[in-house]
Amino acid sequence: MPEGPSMVILKEEVRAFKGKKILAASGNSKIDIPALVNQRVVDFKTWGKHFLICLPKLTLRVHFLLFGKHSINETRQGKPRLALTFTNGSLYFYSCSIKEIHENLDDVYDWSVDVMNAHWDGAAARKKLKAHPEMLICDALLDQTIFAGAGNIFKNEVLFRTRVHPKSLVGNIPPRKLTEIVKQVHLYAFDFLKWKKAFVLKKHWEAHAKKICPRDNIPFHKEYLGKTKRRSFFCDQCQVLYK
């Protein structure tokens, strides 16, 4: 599933279509596709894992789910959920969810929970964490109402950076350590962005999908933890389980 930094990169990739009129639209998405023709793209925005195409009459919300893809000026295998043609190229979306938003985006989205947004509020994120003392920290880091844009890579890397075991309950984690976790989520978001742009993201993984702990040189544990049963990679020796 693409995470927040990948949405920011996509926004940069499609900036040439900003201000352009949609000349043709097609796809098998259950939205009013014919109504998109002749509308002009006002802006592209992101919120967490959502990619937003802002038009004068509505906004299209693209969620890439687990296997969504996009392409620019070239088609992929399979039928696109949405294809948009402009004077200067075409934009295609595959295997994703596309919905219409007719409300003002400021009424729909809390920009302060988006880890990539200029309005990110770390203090508010910490307050939300403390409001869920019974939650596993591995679930909390994937909660989009707390850390919009953070995903499974974030979870594994941040918990390794902060030396916190994924099975720790939020309420048992010391206050200073909670503050450190929130700070590292934000820092990692921009490390992720920098490394992904340079095509070296995987080279910088310390825990995610790894077999050996680089600190202790012992095998990582791999388990499917929490409510979402996402893969967790962790070290029982250097990551503290707060009981």
From TrEMBL:
InterPro entries: FPG_cat, FPG_N, H2TH_FPG, Ribosomal_uS13-like_H2TH. One of its GO terms (biological process) is base-excision repair. One of its GO terms (molecular function) is DNA-(apurinic or apyrimidinic site) endonuclease activity. SUPFAM superfamilies: N-terminal domain of MutM-like DNA repair proteins (SSF81624), S13-like H2TH domain (SSF46946). Keywords: DNA damage, DNA repair, DNA-binding, Endonuclease, Glycosidase, Hydrolase, Lyase, Multifunctional enzyme, Nuclease. It catalyses: Hydrolysis of DNA containing ring-opened 7-methylguanine residues, releasing 2,6-diamino-4-hydroxy-5-(N-methyl)formamidopyrimidine. Pfam families: H2TH (PF06831). PROSITE patterns: FPG_CAT (PS51068). This is Endonuclease. It comes from Paraflavitalea soli.
